[in-house]
Amino acid sequence: MKKTLSSLIIFIFVISCASPEVVNVIGPNDNKLSCEELSNEIARANELADKAQQAKKMDKAHNLGAILFFLPGYGMTMNNIQEATKAAKERTLHLNKIKEKKNC
After folding, report:
1. Sequence spans of domains, the chain
2. Which of 14, 46, 86, 92 sits at 20 to 30 Å (Cα–Cα) from 35?
3. Which pLDDT score is estimated for 40?
């Protein structure tokens, strides 16, 4: 019984922490990318920003678990979401500037 209860508590704790991927704004080979590769990277950055915003919704299990069982984790999750969204937007701007320089 103790193992089951411990496993359940650990499981709830783990799902209560959302961590959207925070992308690097500037990649080491960004200037070497072709126009098509730049477009793909922009699409990927936009997709990561969308995923981060989806993680913000209150109907997600990790948010409900964080509020019920680990309130500081909820605050950390919201901070991580803001950071991930900002980094994705900055990456998109950076890649668009490179596309303009290359006349894509």
Report:
1. 2-101
2. 86
3. 93
Q: Could you please report the per-residue DSSP string of the chain?
A: -HHHHHHHHHHHHHHT--------SS-TTGGG--HHHHHHHHHHHHHHHHHHHHHT-TTSHHHHHHHHH-HHHHHHHHHHHHHHHHHHHHHHHHHHHHHHHTT-
Token pair recorded at residue 64: 């409900």
Per-residue model confidence (pLDDT) at position 97: 92
What does the longest C-alpha to C-alpha distance in the chain come to?
65
pLDDT beneath 70: ranges in the chain: 5, 7-19, 57-74
- pLDDT score, position 22: 79
* In the block, residue with structure tokens 């993680």: 55
